[in-house]
Amino acid sequence: MSTFETLQARGFVQQSTEGARALLDGPATTFYVGFDPTGDSLHAGHLLPVMVMAHLQRAGHQPIAVVGGGTGMVGDPSGKEESRQLLTAEGVAHNKRCLKSQLARFIDFGPGKGQLVDNADWLLGLNYIDFLRDIGKHFSVNTMLSKASVKLRLEKGLSFLEFNYQLLQAFDYLELNRRLGCKLQVGGDDQWGNIVAGIDLIRRVESRESHGLTIPLLTTATGAKMGKTVAGAVWLDAEKMSVFDYYQYWINVDDRDVGRFLKLYTFLPLEEIARLEALQGADIRAAKAVLAFEATAIAHGKEATELAQAGAVAAFGGGQNVESMPTFNAKLPIPVVRLLVESGLCDSNSDARRQIKGGAIKIAGEKVMDAQAELTAGHLDTEGAVVLSRGKKKKLRVLGS
């Protein structure tokens, strides 16, 4: 199976230029994906283009990860109904460092391998008048207004700052083509208009051919946006979301999503995925366990994943290794409502009281029915700990002091 066919078979291809297939199925080529540092962590919804980068690098192509220290100061309006909050230079710099560290888990940035670049290197020093004369003259306002991302925002208001984003991203592609011989841009399908603008700019300025490929904007079988949960985003940063909870996210996906997610979020061979995808009934749990282990190991490493797996077995499978469960240190006595909020099992005091009233909260397997209840030293086992749970899927080992 060719490189392009592999991407198609795994569900990574939404749109592509006519020559993208031949480019990827031919000799090694340089391609790029952009990441604006609007936050200090990627989440599971960001991972599709990252996985494409990893697959293409394994096929011999050379990835460029562009961390947008320049475009991050503007904010991409694509796919957004409201303006992004503008970041300070210090905020962009902090987020950029965090994203670089996370991308390195997926991409080999060793000598002669992948490259990490910052578009601030060429954007922040631009002379505005020169930029308008040299680059702006190649853009038609009518064409820019026809883009879907712009149309969506015109109804609610689009700042001139954001309107310029398409020029800046197109200029990124032009600069990468000039500096590093980049011939392909990969991005989410909401980026198609920006990608085409870059391709057209390279053709006009350099008289060279370049290409683009977009990835589907993914939702789960329930219609939820990929990488989002009721509690918030599925972060890659272990400080924002523990490895245990990351593992639990994947093992609790909808049965209908298991095969699709195995193709997108793991490197397992398609033949093995087909076998797992064919499992039915209770056997689908085995496929979910494989998905959870493989997806978590890619993001957090095998050792941390094995600990998360052991914690899951202890919490939900009757295992004895409860030390592997996520833990929370509490000064006793403590009101259960407060403990639920401070430990992250509940979002607020009112949420905690609702969960108690509904019978969802247990201490050492016993339901807590009184919203005024406290956790005391009497609840602790001989090791000074007790398991606190919310429903069937959220458990925590509380260490008392």
CATH topology of the largest domain: Rossmann fold
Known CATH architecture of the largest domain: 3-Layer(aba) Sandwich
The tally of strands reads: 15
The CATH class of the largest domain, by name, is Alpha Beta
The level of helicity is 40-55%
Kindly describe this structure.
Helix content is 43%, strand content 14%. The chain is built from 18 helices and 15 strands. It has helices at 3-10, 20-24, 47-58, 89-103, 120-123, 128-134, 141-146, 148-154, 160-163, 165-180, 192-206, 243-251, 258-265, 270-277, 284-300, 302-316, 336-342, 349-357; strands at residues 15-16, 30-35, 62-67, 115-118, 184-188, 211-215, 228-229, 232-233, 327-330, 334-335, 361-363, 366-367, 374-375, 385-390, 394-400. Strand 2, helix 3 (47-58) and strand 3 (62-67) form a beta-alpha-beta unit. The termini are far apart. Helix 12 (243-251) packs antiparallel against helix 15, helix 12 packs across helix 16 and helix 13 packs antiparallel against helix 14. The strands form four sheets. A six-stranded mixed β-sheet has the order 1-6-5-2-3-4, with helices on both faces. It folds into three domains: 3-215, Rossmann fold, CATH 3.40.50.620; 234-319, Tyrosyl-Transfer RNA Synthetase (Orthogonal Bundle), CATH 1.10.240; 327-400, Structural Genomics Hypothetical 15.5 Kd Protein In mrcA-pckA Intergenic Region, Chain A, CATH 3.10.290.10. With 401 residues, it is an alpha/beta fold.
